[in-house]
Amino acid sequence: MAKLKESKGEPVAENPELVSNKFGQTEDFLNKYKTVLFGIVGAAILAGAGYFFYNHQKSSENKEAQNAMFVSVLAFEEDSLDRALKGSGPNAPGLLDVADEFSGTNAGDLANFYVGVAYLKKGKFEDAISYLKEFNANDLLVQARAYSLIGDAYMELKDFDNAVTYYKKASDYKPNEQYTPSYLMKLALAYEVSKKFEDAAKQYEKIIKDFPKSSEVMDAKKYFEQDLELAK
Predict the structure, then answer these.
(1) pLDDT tens digits, residue range 90-123?
(2) Does the keyword Cell membrane apply (predicted)?
(3) Residue whose C-alpha is closest to residue 111's, from 132, 82, 92, 90
(4) Average pLDDT along the chain
(5) What residues make up the domain containing 121?
């Protein structure tokens, strides 16, 4: 099967600045109000102290991780995937090391995303799935993209049921005009290769009704009619 590609716009995975900006923009609420919270008595004080220390450590580690992965991200941008994954010396660790050493930080989480995309590009689909599933964000774009890429990997493995699951996750995650229609197109394709033409038609219909100004709408109208015929 030919490699699946995002149908429009600059892939988030290939724009490290855009991805990185999704992390580290919000200050920890509890750190801002620690004076008030430490007024709580008993065990809650100890729990709060431990929590603040944990977050301080995570914040410090996050900055260290961001610095550590800088060179490897540049290598990723240059499509030097082996160098991005494995690093290029003691002062330039690879994304694999960053993901492992700084697990639990935003930068470590982001490293999982990059590693997953790198493995997807290298055709190591099971490894790609493993790392992309470790990625977790609450942003508008990147989490949905991770779900979509997992779906791509499952499509390459001809595991169409799991591809459907993750394309649905992508299309359901914070729907927006720019990216959701492309995820719905992929979901429809996964249904089509599974001979579930009625389900595929529903995805095209959703694009037509919910995203009438999207660039995918003309294709959606065409394939919607075709799948309705095939579903009979």
Answers:
(1) 778 899 999 998 888 888 888 899 999 999 999 9
(2) no
(3) 132
(4) 78
(5) 34-136
- Kindly report, residue by residue over 72-91, the tens digit of the pLDDT: 888 988 989 999 999 987 77
Report the C-alpha gap between 123 and 71 in whole angstroms: 23
| 160/18 Cα distance (integer angstroms) | 30
CB-based contact 72:83 (threshold 8 Å): yes
Q: Does a structural domain hold residue 8?
A: no
90: buried, middle or exposed (CB in 10 Å: 19+, 13-18, 0-12)?
Answer: exposed
How many helices (H) and strands (E) in the chain? 13, 0
21-65 pLDDT tens trace = 433 333 333 343 333 333 333 333 344 433 333 344 456 667 777
Asked if 115 and 75 touch (Cβ cutoff 8 Å), the reply is no
* CA distances for 96 relative to 62, 72, 82, 109, 209, angstroms: 15, 10, 10, 11, 42
Is 142 in the same domain as 66? no
| Rounded Cα–Cα distance for residues 217 and 229 (Å) | 19
pLDDT at 46: 40
Among 107, 16, 100, 94, which residue's Cα sits nearest to residue 60? 107
CA distance 26 to 91: 28
pTM: 0.74
At position 18, the amino acid (one-letter code) is: L
Q: For residue 57, count other CB atoms closer than 10 A to its CB.
A: 12
Residue 165 inside a domain? The answer is: yes
